[in-house]
Amino acid sequence: MLSEIRKSDAQNRAEATVDAFRKDLGPFVVAAQKTRMPMIFTDAEPTHSVIFANDAFLEMTGYKRDEVLGKTFKSLLSAGIDPENISLVDDAFDGLGADDPEIHYKRKDGTEFWVTLFVGPVCDSDGNIVQQFVSLVDLTKHKNDTARFKILVDELNHRVKNTLSSVQSIVTQAFRGSSEHEVVKEAIESRILALSGSHDLLIGSNWEGSGLHDLVETALRPFEAVAGKAERFTIFGPDVHLSPNTTLSLAIALHELATNAAKYGAFSNHAGTVAVDWVFLTVTAGKRLLLRWRERDGPLVTTPTRKGFGSWVIERGLAHELGADVTLNYERHGVTCKIDIPVPADRDI
Fold it and tell me: pTM for this structure?
C-alpha cells in the first residue's frame, strides 16, 4: 500500500509539472502533442524524469501517458542496453556527445527497435537548463533493410563466384570438345544464355529463388523454334519454390538435356516430344523432390562412346551442388533422366 501511495504521489507531482509546462509553453505544447515526430520533455534532474510525452512517442513505445509521466528516461530504455550505449545517452544529455546516439529501445510489450536520439537543453532567460527536450527517429526499417541488403550482397557475391566458375567450365569444356571456331562459339554462347535466363528469374525475385515451373519454361523456351511448337513440351508438377543455388544448377542441367535433344534426340525430328514432371516423395531419410525428363518418338538412341560436358554437368554437377542422385539413361525410345533432390526441412530446395 505504501508503494502505491508513493507512486501516486510521484504521479501527482509529475502531472502538476506537466500542467505547469503546458501553461508556460501554451500553443507549442499543443503542436508538439500532435506532431508525428516522437518527442518527450524531461526535467533537469540527473534522473531525467519525463514531464511530457506526445502521442507519437506513446504510439511508438506502446505505453499509455500515465505509464510514462514521472518515470526516468533510462527506465524506458531497453533493459538489455549495453553500458556503452548507456554512456552515449548520458553524454547526449550532458551535451558531450560528438554524434547523436543510435540505441535499442524497448516497447511496452518487450519488442525492440532502433532509434536515433536527439537531445537538446531548454534554458531559462538566465541560461540555466530547466528541462531537456528529446526527439526520436525510428531507424528500425533502415536497420532491417541494411541487414537484408548485406545478406543479398553476400548471396550475390557467392552466386557471382559460382557463375564465373560455371562460365570457366563452359569455356574449358567447349575448347576440349572441338577445335572448330563456330562450334566452340555456339557451345559457349548457348550455355551462357541459359545462365542469363536463370539470372533473369532470380533478379525478378530479388535473388530469393524461383518457381520450378517458371524455371523449366525458361530453360526450354529457346528450343521452341527447334521443336516447332511449344505443344511438344509437357510440363507438370506442383508449385515448388527453389533456392537461388538450385535454380542455377537445374537451369544448366535442363539446358544440356534440351541441347542434346535438339541435336540427337526428340527435338531433332518433327515428331519427338519431351515430358518434364516432378513429384515429392517421403522416404526414411526425409522428403525428396523427384524430377523426370523423358523423351519419346525421336530417333533411336544409342549410348554415346564418351561423355561430354553436358553429361558431366547433369550427373556430377547436380550431385556436387545439390546432393542429388542422378540417373541418366540412353534408352532406345528416348533419353530419360531422373534427378532426385533432398528437400531441406528448414529452407527452400
Answer: 0.58
